[in-house]
């Protein structure tokens, strides 16, 4: 807790000015048509400190598609529902593969490496869906997110969900592969529909940073999981949250983080801050290019690290 709020506010504004001046935005996700159409020239940041101070800069109040950042919340919901039984179906090891890879799934008998690659997130959402209609499972998840973010306006963008559904052959193939290995409990179409809607949740940086307060262990934050589970989710975010870019993110930023192909990143400075960053242009791993840069610069300037 070395940096003062006023200093941090100036830092965020300066960094965002620097990004805007560079005018080199990169390319948004192309494989989901609705995301490919997003204007890449956008960048936002929100940081919430332990005393509740919210510091925002740039497009921090513009909602974006959180995509795989939602996997943190579905994991929390499922751990709350079935506890450690989930780990019979999903591992806790980094994959070193692309987020949508099928490669290890065949080699490892249909048990995905971790809950953040697509295969593992699909199993997690399958567990969320069991015993529920898709609508119910999604409203349970939305209820959780609205509660931890303190905001009932958060919703799902149906156009993004349908756009992913229309082009999601890779995820469908993962789903069918999981089913062939007996690692699914629900019909493939129902799981696919639920998953694309979960990924199509829209949040702003401010809303996402609020949702991360419990994982950061900030005082008075609504807690979606117990403190020990929060620690474990943070560990998974650190080791697996950026797919085959996770080692690099841990090295550069030193904080647990979860990315999504909408260009969002949730990063956690345990005990200190919840951080949300967004810019739609992606790097070669499908992680936000400027979001990663911002996380790096903020962590260095503020002296925040899980390894301090
Ligand atoms: N909905 C996306 C997909 O399954 C999420 C991927 C991501 O954000 N990395 O392909």
Automatic annotation (TrEMBL):
Keyword terms of this UniProt record: Acetylation, Hydrolase
SUPFAM superfamilies, per the entry: beta-lactamase/transpeptidase-like
Pfam families xref list: Glutaminase (PF04960)
InterPro entries attached to this UniProt entry: Beta-lactam/transpept-like, Glutaminase
Catalysed reaction equations from the record: L-glutamine + H2O = L-glutamate + NH4(+)
GO molecular function: glutaminase activity
UniProt entry tagged with the keyword Ion transport: no
Amino-acid positions noted as binding substrate in the UniProt annotation, renumbered to this chain: 68, 118, 164, 171, 195, 243, 261
Record-listed E.C. numbers: 3.5.1.2
Assembly description: Homotetramer.
PANTHER family: GLUTAMINASE
Family indicated by similarity: Belongs to the glutaminase family.
Protein name: Glutaminase
Native species: Litorisediminicola beolgyonensis
Source species taxonomy: Bacteria, Pseudomonadati, Pseudomonadota, Alphaproteobacteria, Rhodobacterales
């Amino acid at each position: 807790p070395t940096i003062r709020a006023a200093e941090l506010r100036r830092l965020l504004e300066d960094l965002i000015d620097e990004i805007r001046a560079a005018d080199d935005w990169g390319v948004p996700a192309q494989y989901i048509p609705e995301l490919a159409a997003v204007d890449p020239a956008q960048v936002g940041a929100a940081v919430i400190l332990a005393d509740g101070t919210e510091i925002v800069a740039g497009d921090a109040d513009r909602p974006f598609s959180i995509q795989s950042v939602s996997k943190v919340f579905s994991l929390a919901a499922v751990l709350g529902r079935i506890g450690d039984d989930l780990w019979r179906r999903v591992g806790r090891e980094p994959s070193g593969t692309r987020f949508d890879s099928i490669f290890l799934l065949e080699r490892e008998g249909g048990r995905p490496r971790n809950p953040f690659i697509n295969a593992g997130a699909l199993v997690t959402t399958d567990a969320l869906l069991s015993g529920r209609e898709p609508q119910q499972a999604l409203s349970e998840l939305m209820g959780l997110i609205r509660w931890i973010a303190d905001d009932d306006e958060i919703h799902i963008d149906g156009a993004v969900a349908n756009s992913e559904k229309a082009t999601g052959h890779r995820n469908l193939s993962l789903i069918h592969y999981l089913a062939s290995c007996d690692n699914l409990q629900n019909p493939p179409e129902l799981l696919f529909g639920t998953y694309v809607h979960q990924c199509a949740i829209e949040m702003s940086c401010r809303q996402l940073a609020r949702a991360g307060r419990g994982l950061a262990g900030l005082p008075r934050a609504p807690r979606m999981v117990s403190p020990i589970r929060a620690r474990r989710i943070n560990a998974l975010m650190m080791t697996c949250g950026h797919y085959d870019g996770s080692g690099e993110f841990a090295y550069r930023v030193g904080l647990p983080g979860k990315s999504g192909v909408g260009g969002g990143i949730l990063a956690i400075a345990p005990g200190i801050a919840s951080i949300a960053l967004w810019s739609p242009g992606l790097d070669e791993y499908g992680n936000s290019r400027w979001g990663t840069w911002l996380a790096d610069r903020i962590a260095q300037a503020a002296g925040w690290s899980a390894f301090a």
